[in-house]
Amino acid sequence: MTQFDKHPDLIVRQPDPFNGGPPPNLLLGNFITPYELFFVRSHGGVPNVDRSSYRLTVDGLVERPLSLSLDDLQRLPRAAVTATLQCAGNRRQEMMAHKPIPDELPWGTEAVSNAEWSGVPLREVLAAAGVRPGARHAAFTGLDDTERHGHRFNFGGSIPLDKALSGEVLLADSMNGQPLQPVHGAPLRVVVPGYVGARSVKWLSRITLQEKPSDNYFQARAYRLFPPHYDKDNVDWEKGLMLGEAPVNSVILSPQEKATVPAGKVTVRGWALAGGSRGVARVDISADGGENWTVADFIKDEGVFVWRLWEAVLDLASGPQEIVCRAWDTAAQTQPERAGQVWNFKGYANNAWHRVRVTCA
Amino acid sequence: MTQFDKHPDLIVRQPDPFNGGPPPNLLLGNFITPYELFFVRSHGGVPNVDRSSYRLTVDGLVERPLSLSLDDLQRLPRAAVTATLQCAGNRRQEMMAHKPIPDELPWGTEAVSNAEWSGVPLREVLAAAGVRPGARHAAFTGLDDTERHGHRFNFGGSIPLDKALSGEVLLADSMNGQPLQPVHGAPLRVVVPGYVGARSVKWLSRITLQEKPSDNYFQARAYRLFPPHYDKDNVDWEKGLMLGEAPVNSVILSPQEKATVPAGKVTVRGWALAGGSRGVARVDISADGGENWTVADFIKDEGVFVWRLWEAVLDLASGPQEIVCRAWDTAAQTQPERAGQVWNFKGYANNAWHRVRVTCA
Q1: Whole-complex ipTM
Q2: Could you point out which of A196, A356, B120, B219 has its C-alpha 20 to 30 Å from the C-alpha of A69?
């Protein structure tokens, strides 16, 4: 089992490779997720990387292929970014309640966390290598040893070149002011703000500029959004949207599902996150299934790429209650009502209204 | 009444100032909307502009305030862009069916059109003027004479400076290869691809770089998205989202509402549009209220800022049928189910599933 400095209360979805994240009560109140609580999504084991022989390869449609040691990377300009990462499978459990999703991790709401990252902007490395005409995508390959369907390979994925050159994407060696730990991708990981977590490749070993998206399994087959009538037996892999930017989402962290709370004024708290370069404009809370909404207050005012923490006070009568939340992004886009409406057989990108059932006593 | 070369079958929502657009059967099949069919949203009368004395003022937080004649503008670099414009109030009628919206135009689905625009990129004009530190928004003012609540003023609005400098925004003097007509903003209008139509200010007379968004009525009060519990009597104007980028949307153009069609194979056709810089990834059609979906085929493959035309074949039994469509953007974001879920007292940004009720005979 993967060894790392993790909090004993993490919700564990898979012990090896380790997949788990913080329960709502521990996410609550932390704008920056503490190191030991940050969720872990691993597709394979954590590789042992020898820092002295480590090299980052930059190749493909570049003027000057590079092989950079960690010392070489230290000589490049640095930057910092606060970015919330969320697994594309976060909130899959709610989709599973609508219709089973057999072969994927049953994430609740714990596959999301927020950190301060620092490192070398991807743009600096690409400028050093020189972008050749025809390049459209930056493909990343990790050092992990992953197995899918009988094949062993390294995790990988890609992002459009425009995003790679935007200055927003970081090759991070530091998280929350500390050196990056092995389980989070040491010595170097990609951080792609505004995108699903899978594109923030850990244990980065290679950046390849190319005309097409990565043909790695996790870009070409997994992490695609398929129409609802597909399943693993009838899927046409070409018919799925390759996930990149994420849709607007929000989650209630308190009260928690099945909690008993005193009737009367109940403070509801949670987070909201907009994908791409959009911001969160508003969060609404309802205790009557969306007939009436209360607008939440933002606790902290931040820009794009990070969640906005919010709270709202509802006046609840005694008895069973269902509290729901929905966010709006800065393009006036809100969330769909039910997880069944966005169900897909891989269980990605669930951004339905989040629901918490409580008893008011 | 406004005189212009308009199609006799335009749906007229207001004769003076003229507000109207093309019925579904005339939008159908045209990727580029013919000139005489392009929808018109006028807030005031069409101004008489003398081309020889016309000047475009560029002021505010600029290094060199400019006063440009049409001849001056002709000496700047030119560009062309195909962009679909949609009024923020398009599809308001469906919201009105949920709850009345008394003081706004009852747009059906006709406040949207697509054109080829050409002119001077806004970026070129701003480069000539020089952007001073502190500038965050580009405010536009028109030459029309508009009246709201007893005050007479010019229409105006603003966009973030980043968008203004993106190269995507055009100061257009040509539409579909012809000189811009007065009703569409001659001699010069703004075209802001990916934004609600209101920011594409017609009869442009002034561009002001400033720290804050425009304080024009149509930026500061109108074209804001308010929470559902506000109306004109209790509204807090500061609590509304200033509309800019638009949410993903789609509309069925054929068959039309209340049509009678032969039972059996029915071809459904329409358009889909994603806001900001996102693209349309998929369109789904259902004849059973969203239980089962058919994925539509795209007829024409275009990039961002333009609608994607689609078609799908459904097998319909005889009797009354409701056909619905929903689109997904490239960030895996789809539309909400019901107009009531996004209702707001100004009736903006309705992107609920579009519904057409037909009888199969």
Answers
A1: 0.96
A2: A196
Provide the domain count of chain A: 2
pTM over 0.90: yes
Kindly determine whether residue A282 and residue B246, on different chains, have CB atoms separated by under 8 Å: no
Confidence of residue B200 (pLDDT cuts 50, 70, 90): very high
Torsion angle (degrees, nearest 10) of CA A283, A289, A292, A297: -20
As a whole number, the mean pLDDT across chain B is 96
A237 and A143 fall within a common domain: yes
State yes or no: pLDDT of B232 exceeds 60. yes
Would the CB atoms of A247 and B330 count as touching at under 8 Å? no
Residues A78 and A222 in one domain: yes
Distance from CA of A246 to the nearest CA of B (A): 5
CA neighbours within 13 Å on the CB side: how many for B227? 23
CB contact under 8 A, A278 and B275: no
Question: A237 and A271: one domain?
Answer: no
Does B243 contact chain A (CB < 8 Å)? yes
Q: Do A282 and B227 touch (CB under 8 A)?
A: yes
Separation in Å, CA of B307 to nearest CA in chain A: 17
Residue A175 has pLDDT above 70, yes or no: yes
Do B128 and B265 sit in the same domain of this protein?
Answer: no
Mean pLDDT of B284-312: 94
Is A349 near chain B, with CB under 8 Å? Answer: yes
Chain B residues in contact with A168 by the CB 8 A cut-off are none
- Same structural domain, B285 and B340: yes
Rounded Cα gap, residues B306 and A217, in angstroms: 31
Residues A253 and A340 grouped into a single domain = yes
Instruction: For residue A332, give how far its alpha carbon lies from the nearest alpha carbon of chain B (Å).
Output: 6
The CA distance from B99 to B109, in Å, is 18
Q: Is the pLDDT of residue A1 over 60?
A: no
Question: Which of B162, B166, B199, B333 is the best mutation test for A, with the most CBs of A within 10 A?
Answer: B333
How big is chain A, counted in residues?
361
CATH number of the domain enclosing B224: 3.90.420.10
Tens of pLDDT along A122-151?
Answer: 999 999 999 999 999 999 999 998 999 899
Which run of H or E residues covers position A92? helix A92-98
The shortest C-alpha distance from A241 to chain B (Å) reads 7
Please indicate whether, in this complex, the C-beta atoms of B348 and A331 are within 8 angstroms of each other: no
Which chain B positions have a beta carbon within 8 Å of A328's beta carbon?
225, 241
Q: Across the interface, which of B246, B332, B341 has its CB nearest the CB of A349?
A: B332
Mean pLDDT along residues B152-156: 95
Return the sign of the alpha-carbon dihedral for residues A297, A300, A306, A309. Answer: negative
**Can you give the residue range of the structural domain that contains A49?**
11-242
The Cα of B29 is separated from the nearest Cα of chain A by a number of Å equal to 25
Which distant-in-sequence residues (6+ apart) come within 8 Å of A288 by Cβ? Answer: none
> Does A228 contact B at CB distance below 8 Å?
yes
Tell me the average pLDDT across B295-301: 91
Confidence check: pLDDT of B301 > 90: no
User: pLDDT per residue over B205-229, tens digit each?
Assistant: 999 999 999 999 999 999 999 999 9
In which band, very low, low, confident or very high, does the pLDDT at B3 lie, cut at 50, 70 and 90? low
Residues of A in contact with B351 (CB under 8 A): 332-333
Task: Write the pLDDT tens digit of every residue in A20-52.
Answer: 999 999 999 899 999 999 999 999 999 999 999
Running DSSP on this structure, what letter comes out for residue B245? B
Task: Give the span between the Cα atoms of B180 and B19, in whole angstroms.
Answer: 18
User: CB neighbours of A191 closer than 8 A, spacing ≥ 6?
Assistant: A81, A83, A85, A117, A119, A169, A170, A171, A172, A200
B167 touches chain A (CB under 8 A): no
Q: Answer whether residue A6 is part of any domain.
A: no
Give the whole-angstrom CA distance, residue A1 versus residue A46.
Answer: 10
Query: For residue A301, what pLDDT band results from cuts at 50, 70 and 90?
Result: confident
Total beta-carbon pairs less than 8 A apart between chain A and chain B: 98
